[in-house]
Amino acid sequence: MDAYDGDGSDPKLIDSGTANIASGAHKEFQAPGKRWYRLDITCDTQGVKELTLTLARGSKEQAYGVGCGDSEADQFNIPPGSTFAAKVDPVKDGTGLVMWRLNTVTRDNVEGCDDDIDGCDG
């Protein structure tokens, strides 16, 4: 089973990529239009159970732990409107890959927090 195929929300692929965990990753994304953006991210590693993902927009940022080897990718929602960045901290001497897909989804397919950069309580 592909870790990206979790929820059946008919996402539209905007960007995707991979990076070695030893070097980490830093990507900036444009978020135009009216559809929400969802970053699906997963990792396949040896001996590393979690990577740190930081999402940022302007002066706001939120850090999250991304579990490696999970059956479904972790999903993060970003509303449309401005540029945002996603950074995965490198793991020195780490072996494995981090993989991501940036999709757009309709507003009614946003589950949980509707802005994982601002964050949500509860």
Mean pLDDT, nearest integer?
Answer: 89
Uncertain runs are 1-7
Measured between the Cα atoms of the first and last residue, the distance is: 31 Å
Q: Share of helix among residues? A: under 10%
The rounded Rg comes to 14 Å
Which term fits the overall shape?
globular
Count of DSSP helices? 0
**Structural category:** mainly beta
Q: What is the quaternary state of this protein? A: single chain
Strand content: over 45%
Q: What kind of sheet is the major sheet?
A: 4 strands, antiparallel
Number of strands: 8
Biggest sheet strand line-up: 1-8-3-6
Order of helices and strands: EEEEEEEE
What does this protein structure show overall?
With 122 residues, the chain is mostly beta strands. Helices cover 0% and strands 51% of the residues. The strands form two sheets. Strands 1-8-3-6 form a four-stranded antiparallel sheet, with no helix packed on it. A four-stranded antiparallel sheet has the order 2-7-4-5, with no helix packed on it.
Features:
122 residues, mainly beta
Outline the fold blueprint:
Layout: E1 12-20, E2 25-29, E3 36-46, E4 50-57, E5 60-67, E6 74-78, E7 84-88, E8 95-105
Antiparallel strand pairs: 1-8, 2-7, 3-6, 3-8, 4-5, 4-7
What's this, in brief?
This protein has 122 residues and is mainly β.
